[in-house]
Amino acid sequence: MHKVVSATTNPAKIQAILQAFNEIFGEGSCHIDAVSVESGVPEQPFGSEETRAGARNRVKNARLARPDADFWVAIEAGIDDGSTFSWVVIETREQRGEARSATLPLPKVILERVQAGDALGPVMSHYTGIDEIGRKEGAIGVFTAGKLTRSSVYHQAVILALSPFHNAVYR
Question: Of 6, 40, 50, 97, whose CB is crowded by the most CB atoms within 10 A?
Fold first, then answer.
């Protein structure tokens, strides 16, 4: 059984990680240990590079907090070019896999508040009345009428970031 450290305690992110690992390595193939660690970037990262740096920093900090794992996984959400997206970074002792998620264009009224300094989660909670929306369906669930959720989009990116770990051609 793989010991996987999730560099977040966010249920939407943990669900995506667990589902992806079960699909790639088999049902019940992993145990997830969730740990809250710092990203080293602002609460609301802007741009692809700052967002990826946040995910890489979370993996590094999760490795320091829980060094005895087989995998360390971080998902960092950010804003880039008027859209929300995330970077997934997965590491073992030997290698790293990274993938960027699909993007969701944000409405002007939401984007303006985020660009003024508010994080997307609180802005969306205010807009929808859903407390801690970032730990639930997120903006993605709201603006896709529930066809996609924050977790489902993260799930795809985790699957992509796992590719180097089960395909020999990456080694």
Answer: 6
Question: Is the model's pTM score more than 0.85?
Answer: yes
23 labeled part of a ligand binding site: no
107 exposure class (CB count in 10 Å sphere: 0-12, 13-18, 19+): exposed
92 belongs to an annotated ligand binding site: no
The reply to whether 12 sits in an annotated binding site is yes
Instruction: Give tens-digit pLDDT for 28-61.
Output: 999 999 999 999 999 999 999 999 999 999 999 9
Span 94-117, pLDDT tens digits: 999 999 999 999 999 999 999 999
Q: Give the burial class of 160: count Cβ atoms within 10 A of its Cβ; 0-12 exposed, 13-18 middle, 19 or more buried.
A: middle
Tell me: is residue 68 an annotated ligand-binding position.
Answer: yes
13 known member of a binding site: yes
